[in-house]
## 1
Amino acid sequence: MARKAATTRRETLKATAIGAFALAIAPRLALADAASVDAEIKKLYGDKKPAEGKIKLDVPQIAENGLVVPINVEVESAMSAADHVKTVHVFADGNPLPGIASFTFTPESGKAAASTRMRLAQTQNIICLAEMSDGKLYSAKAQVKVTIGGCGG
């Protein structure tokens, strides 16, 4: 009867390292959903409900490459000391982390507009939230269909 060799110290350390790595990246592999976007918005603004309007959210309906999806956001505002956009937040409900970008504006900005590119893991909703100087919130939402490779490949 053959005797099984004992596990070496090196094998034990290797298995422990692989397990620790898997635990460290596991939360990042999970995708956000509408509830996680709502939770992020609640962290920022509590139970304040945003109204529709004032935001022009320009994203492609179909993104042939999820690695570089353009986004343009513009908020209608006088951009005066009494009436201006303070912040704009962009969220995605299908990426590993729901927050995509945040932009801060002042009356000196002249115009509340921003452009960037984002990486999308899959077909998902893009949610844009704008906070005005008087505390009012506005939102806009659009769906982007990703046809090939995003964050998840």
Note: The chain has a mean pLDDT of 85.
## 2
Amino acid sequence: MGNRFAEIAFTPAVQAQQEAHGTRASYARFSEGPPWNDRITEKEAEFIHARDGFYLASVSETGWPYVQFRGGPPGFLRVLDDRTLGWADFRGNRQYVSVGNVSGDARVALILMDYANRRRLKILGRAESLEVGADDGLAARLAVSAYEAKIERAVRVRVEGFDWNCPQHITPRFTLEEVERAVTPLRERVAALELRLANCEGGLDPAAG
């Protein structure tokens, strides 16, 4: 059994490529032992709750993959229990491609990015889309206070497996909030130095005692 993500993702064709490129032996141990990487721990939960968006991949009836970005305030993606994620699905361009795909094939993949710290979490699961009013109040429980976007449905995902990626080739990027947190101390320092300079020019140096 072993690593649940590898069990799902490492198909015979994938294993053949690993063998051809010399990595199969190192990955073979992933299939050993009891199931693991199928239950959300505190580490994953903390990472998930800090995200303000993620990429959602679904499978169409024609077999084509479809990837869409889902965004909202940090914490809108919730860990409902150690095998279940959920989020309030806000109204967007109303194409409903992901919703339609999930209605025919529940299999989805989520990629969660922390560009600033070069971390990435991949999650495989089975999604269920529940329209508001037919969801036993799940959408209301997943609502984000002070966020005015209209909730059309709740989405619940049963986690089948997950995997943390290495940081290689992840270019650091920063949100406006992250930049503001980084530069605020610098702005405060500049303001203090400007005040000190102004006092010096006026003959009043507070550092002189």
Note: The mean pLDDT is 92.
